[in-house]
């Protein structure tokens, strides 16, 4: 372990009724991540500092926060990649209701997810109830299954963050989830109407901020949102595809 | 079925145009996009309206500016280029509209770029501040409509501009081929390569990289299907478009710069400001 040096952290303290940034100074050593520093602050000077965490390995998606204004996982943000010559700001996610300090209530996401039409596979291909799938077909949706539900993409999305369209817009996380179902080679459900009118994919103006903050490096915009937008165009906006559908009915 | 609403007490303190806790230079990229796209829009608008020096025939060369290709009519008062599909400028053209052949065709590639998924994301940030940067405050308004309503719902016409853009690729490739044939004494044509030829050859290559990596094309060639592996050729096409699509931003900028540079090169040669060098 290297030499310890003091770094100041400016951490949001408060709850739904109000709060403020408070400075804490703690010693940082080689290899530490921001979550280590927060734990050290809890141990040394603020035992009541609320912070959600679990795996400390970037896989549970619990410790989402805004570090120097960027939505990131605290456990995956190394101290040596941050400028520590000035205080390091740690804020809770801005897009979800604040519970206390760095903890937000992300349950809205689970409610939205429940409303998305479920997976509806075609009839089994084989007598034993199994299906046959080509690896190439299922690979595309496997990327979306990497999502750890940290909701950083929801946090950075300006449609939710700035325009607070929570009642109408489901956000990038749920577009990944919808893409995972809609593009699945076995799925027969049609979610395009829901995408257009309930999830309101048209609010997305493809600024790719969701892709930039994803800790799992899922290509959210290019591989999920834009392909879904194109499917919505097929279904509702393109007169030629609609015309062809008269002569060639049936989904997929 | 409406989704549940949320209450965000912590947002009220931090909401505001350009408000952010980010301390990095987040504004550099949108600023570069603003300057780059802004410069191109200013130059291309001027070049489209000016209506002269779009064809260089100096020393037997046959260079046509991509801003004027396909050339439907030769501009009035300009020496016939040999490229005009329908000959001389039409007499019915209203006098109050500048007589420039570029105005007849530039709406198609312009529309393709304007509705491009990459450019949309880029200019929404740089020109409209929606948002100015990731996790940077934009104009906080309850009137935000995104691409759900008019006018931005028309962005969904991107695939139609794609069809036109693919046609332009063939035309610009033919222009590059034509630039390899120099008119000698007595009107005989001979094969040759000048700097202008190379400039005109690079142009459709870069435009091809950009156009053939289009998100709409990726969807149309196979992305719309859930089971693509049952058609080998379609799978191959989808993989190729996906490969180009991964560098769509780079192709977009390279082709944008080069198409503008190609027009400038032809214009400077045609007006005699520079002399084209014949390599062989």
Task: Give the helices and strands, then pairings.
The complex is a heterodimer of chains A (252) and B (280).
Chain A: E1 5-15, E2 18-28, H1 34-44, E3 64-67, E4 70-73, E5 88-91, E6 98-100, E7 103-104, H2 107-114, H3 135-142, H4 152-156, H5 158-161, H6 172-182, H7 192-197, H8 209-213, H9 220-237, H10 239-247
Parallel strand pairs in A: 1-5
Antiparallel strand pairs in A: 1-2, 3-4, 3-5, 6-7
Chain B: H1 11-14, H2 28-50, E1 55-56, E2 63-64, H3 102-105, H4 107-114, H5 117-126, H6 158-178, E3 181-183, E4 189-191, H7 195-211, H8 215-223, H9 232-246, H10 248-270
Antiparallel strand pairs in B: 1-2, 3-4
Helix content of chain A: 25-40%
* Assembly classification: heterodimer
Contiguous low-pLDDT stretches of chain B (5 residues minimum) are none
Query: What value does the average pLDDT of chain A take?
Result: 95
Give me the secondary-structure category of chain B.
mainly alpha
What is the overall shape of chain B? globular
Order of helices and strands of chain B: HHEEHHHHEEHHHH
Overall number of structural domains of chain A: 2
Major sheet description of chain B: 2 strands, antiparallel
The biggest beta sheet of chain A, please? 5 strands, mixed
Net shape of chain A: elongated
Largest interface: A-B, 71 and 59 residues
**What is the count of helical runs of chain A?**
10
Identify the strand order in the major beta sheet of chain B. Answer: 1-2
Estimated structural class of chain A: alpha+beta
- Roughly how many Å is the radius of gyration of chain A? 22 Å
Low-confidence stretches of chain A: none
